[in-house]
């Protein structure tokens, strides 16, 4: 961790948005209290919960690994506390990792993004067919 920026504890109330899909990834998080739901879409028919992160779990690392926008939104489903790891610290840790481990982490991240995008496309197609059937 950097000397200038220690780990930062952040609190979120129930239903607070930690980040939105498409936001710049500036930190990864570890839940120390409460829980966070990872979602594609926030409200409406296209909204889908991908997973719930509980105490000890991490989230937000994909955007840091891949240097890309957030692939999903994160919402606190209870009063929640997280520890944030800055992008600089995360990249420094990854840079120091064994090259094989680094490649595995990056490829796993890419694969998760591809599968999540494919899931969203398939659900959109299914929703469109269902809408056409009932119109």
Q: Would you mind describing this structure in some detail?
A:
The protein has helices at 61-66, 87-96, 99-134; strands at residues 8-12, 17-19, 27-33, 35-40, 48-54, 58-59, 73-76, 80-86. It contains three helices and eight strands; from the N terminus they run E-E-E-E-E-E-H-E-E-H-H. The termini are far apart. The chain is flat and about 50 Å long. It has 135 residues and is an alpha+beta fold. The longest helix is centred in the last third of the chain and has 36 residues, at 99-134. 39% of the residues lie in helices and 30% in strands. It has a four-stranded antiparallel β-sheet. The chain has a four-stranded antiparallel β-sheet with strand order 2-7-4-5, with no helix packed on it. It has a single domain, classed as Jelly Rolls (Sandwich), CATH 2.60.120.10.
